[in-house]
Automatic annotation (TrEMBL):
Alphabetized Pfam families for the sequence: Lactamase_B_2 (PF12706)
Keywords tagged on the record: Hydrolase
Domain (Metallo-beta-lactamase) ranges: 7-136
InterPro entries associated with the record: Metallo-B-lactamas, RibonucZ/Hydroxyglut_hydro
Domain of life (superkingdom): Archaea
Protein name, entry field: MBL fold metallo-hydrolase
GO MF: hydrolase activity
Amino acid sequence: MITHGNTTVVLDIGPDIGEQLIKTRTKSVDAFFVTHAHDDHISGILDLHKVSAFADIPVTVFAEQTVWSYIDDVFPWVEVNRCDVSPQDQVSVGPLTVEPFRIEHSEQFPEVGYSITDGQATAVYAPDVYSIKARIA
């Protein structure tokens, strides 16, 4: 999770995302970014679906098309604001710029890492990585 002023982004949506948000007393999240389609990185989308569908709170999730295809196969009823993202895209969320980059994890599940910057400082998130060929930050 990265917070800058009133802007919060969360990287990956593991099965304990609800617990994590409660423990950190996070009241709102501007965007969620998913790295790849492994359950330990996306299964928390079920909790986000509940918030979006039943509490009528908008939930925005950025992921590659391969992730959305997997979610459609496994959780076809999930409703969130879906945003496609690809390596080298730049996504602005408040004062933050989030840029996905390709990393290698497995052929079956392509993966991206994320570089997040506010223009002064940069954080990089690259879980489950085998190798990185991209230039980061």
